[in-house]
Amino acid sequence: MTVPYHHQVATSKPHLILKLLFRWKGSVWKSVLVEYFIWIVSYFIIYAIYRYALPKYNQKSLEEFIRFCDKSLGFIPLNFMLSFFVTTVVNRWTVMFTNLGLIDNVALFTAQYVQGDDARGRMFRRNIVRYCCLAHAILLRDVSMKIRRRFPTIDSMVPAGFMMPHELEKYESIKNRYNKSWGRVDSEYLEYAVATEIRNLRANMITIWQHDWVSIPVLYPQVVFAATYIYFILALFARQFIIPQDQLSGEVDLHFPIISSVTFIIYVGWMKVAMALLNPFGEDDDDFDCNFFT
To answer: Is 223 in the same domain as 89?
Structure first.
């Protein structure tokens, strides 16, 4: 499941907020570390070339390019693009989370309304729940790499208890599925209650399957990711401090790009939020633990 932290924010005391801010697992620091290291190293390479390797006339040409990059940054609507993209991804993540589906309701209704203390009645109840668990596991096997590794083939579900050997043979041989009926429910209403819960579970699974089948158009994340990286490639030059002609200009050369580093962490971290939520059935720290549901 996602990284738990609610116990650390039980109150709004400042030291708890700081403790949350500097968590490592699933944090923004962990997600942007590699990109930031590459960016800051590239920044200082350009810094060293500009100040110590270029002659004066080449420095002037680079300074013109730095001014051009600084003006060009304002033409990339990064705030606008990231806002809409993250909103879209978060809404998609919310729908997938609310439709993960639990077997509990089906099991409770089946145990209550499918009667019979004999072996045949118990077999009906167990099989109804097991078939629902099997359908759920087959779905999660298609959308989650963790479950795919746990059950690399349909055959591997037999030792796990989801299927019986003879059911596997029928599963592989039957091309069409048909509804089954049984006579262990006292009334049509009770049968309807059990069937409704099974339909609800099926509807949840269909929603998950549809979201896995139809992804967000690839050009959308491509545009957002490209815009973010292009923005900070230009920032490598645009955020260089131009050596002033007048030593008394009053401009402060901090050497280290403090504000640019903060901007990088915020924007790239914002982009990483969308990347982490884009496929919640993956293997990141904050992805769903599908093994829990199987």
So the answer is: yes
Give the single-character DSSP code of 6. G
Residues 200 and 221 in one domain: no
Structural domain boundaries enclosing 59:
26-98+217-293
Residue 8 included in any domain:
no
Q: Which residues pair with 185 in a beta bridge?
A: 114
- Output the tens digit of pLDDT for each of the chain's 294 residues: 566 666 666 666 777 777 777 777 777 888 888 999 999 999 999 989 888 888 888 888 888 888 888 888 888 888 888 888 888 888 888 888 888 777 778 888 788 777 778 888 888 888 888 888 888 888 888 888 888 888 888 888 888 888 888 888 887 776 655 433 334 455 566 666 777 877 888 888 888 887 787 778 888 888 888 999 999 999 998 888 877 766 655 566 678 888 889 999 989 988 888 888 887 777 777 677 677 766
pTM of the model: 0.72
Using the structure block, give the residue that is written with the tokens 């099991």: 107
**234 and 272 share one domain:** yes
8 Å CB contact between 162 and 127: no
The amino acid present at 15, given as its one-letter code, is: H
